[in-house]
């Protein structure tokens, strides 16, 4: 640590333990030693950066003054703990400089004065404990500190309304024995009267005391902000939709002027197929079809030169499906991803609903595309969603799936953030089923070099029995995450290059699966490549606060911490930055199944 940091820390300790001779001898905390290298008492450092991260000085009979300014100005602490000493003084405004603070424990001291407003700037704060002190005044607004899980302020002289907190996330809360007044907010059944006792001014059901009619409602500013931003999003959605419709109409009018013919191939031998050849393109009704076509079909019909066909695979839902049916049916855009757009298409007046993926920029020949789709159709697993039909011309590639109304894993995780049940057993089942299905597909398609290519929680859908199914297997062009696969293969012959690439694409799936496991464990769904979630989990694990990564709902439910840790280990193995060191999907499936067996055994025990 540099001299400035040392000076500040020594200053902090000088005030905290004035005249404490013992500390000079054995504690460190002086200018002639280094807090990290010489291991000052109570100091923990970031091993790589060699900077002070934690100061934990509990129960050391410290009787001096708390000097927040010194410690927050010079360091980027994540933990400051001074519990059970006799420290005096106050928490000054400079606490706002301790931006990386996640844990602040000051309980059991003689601290006093108002809590500074700058506390609300500590956006990373998780645990806040100022119980058993002499703090007074109103508690600042903590509502923007979304990750807070502990708020303990019992046995002080705090006053005003109960602090504005997100009670659905809190694990520990106590404000008993203070001077709080007014109504008790909705604590979502999480906390009992004990958390509020001995505050004579409080009223509400929980303390069996009716609130006077004029009492102000519990603060809800955050809620109204949320709902107004939601409204804004909805309205902007309408505006964008309106614009798209106008553009479509213009596009249709322009394209109507030069209708072109749709050429369709006779289906290949051995395929159960149905084309529009005998229905549309050879009939004079062609312009009719063009009139009714949905947005996704425009360029298919435009591409007069294309050699194309709708190939129907074996599925009762798609029996007799014709390309023109798809063109005419009403379609709704479900999403626009990196690799294309997805439409919900309603056939037979809504009796059949399909999901049609229009793949963007895939420079694969029609022949290769067809071969790939037919190969994929042979490798069937109950937890992998097969496509029911596909269409391909030189410019257009469409994939047709059954529409799954029960949504994706991503949506279920979002729902669980809003309090919908998604318990540990169900999460472990999803992990095990997806792992097994992916392992099966990898084994089946290894020779062909076809991996999923885009595994993430929006591509894990729940079927009508609520079983998880991997969708869009094998649809995506591979982008190597690791150039070493290329550089390694560049020096070899073509065969080696292909092998290197296909090795990489399977390992990329395993990384994707690791991210899905993290989502299940943390309850935090990620939309894109999952890097931020992974980085966050790694940093928490490195800081040895591992338990804090788990979804609070799982902890409240009493899920086995040991098994959650085991699953986290598997996730981290899958996400090893060196793809060569990641386990195979088969090994992952075996590890998860062992965990699931343990879980099943323990839950069947009396
Ligand atoms: N067959 C289906 N039935 C119902 N919903 C589906 C189906 N397939 C995908 N979805 C959902 O529709 C939405 C849009 O799908 P899309 O595949 O375009 O999104 P994405 O996976 O995020 O994008 P991309 O894979 O192109 O990067 C997602 O929320 C996905 O879960």
Automatic annotation (TrEMBL):
Entry annotated with the keyword Signal: yes
GO molecular function, one term: protein kinase activity
Positions of the UniProt region annotated as Disordered: 261-297
Superkingdom in the source lineage: Eukaryota
Segments passing through the bilayer: 232-254
Binding positions for ATP per the UniProt entry: 357
Xref: InterPro entries: At_inactive_RLKs (IPR050994), Kinase-like_dom_sf (IPR011009), Leu-rich_rpt (IPR001611), Leu-rich_rpt_4 (IPR025875), LRR_dom_sf (IPR032675), LRR_N_plant-typ (IPR013210), Prot_kinase_dom (IPR000719), Protein_kinase_ATP_BS (IPR017441)
Any GO CC annotation of this UniProt entry: membrane
Compositional bias ranges of the Low complexity kind: 274-288
The UniProt record lists the keyword ATP-binding: yes
Residue stretches making up the Protein kinase domain: 328-606
Subcellular locations according to the entry: Membrane
Gene3D superfamilies given in the database record: Phosphorylase Kinase, domain 1, Ribonuclease Inhibitor, Transferase(Phosphotransferase) domain 1
Biased composition (Basic and acidic residues): 261-271
Keywords assigned by UniProt, alphabetized: ATP-binding, Kinase, Leucine-rich repeat, Membrane, Nucleotide-binding, Receptor, Repeat, Signal, Transferase, Transmembrane, Transmembrane helix
Pfam families named among the record's database cross-references: LRR_4, LRRNT_2, Pkinase
Protein name: Probable inactive receptor kinase At2g26730
Lineage: Eukaryota, Viridiplantae, Streptophyta, Embryophyta, Tracheophyta
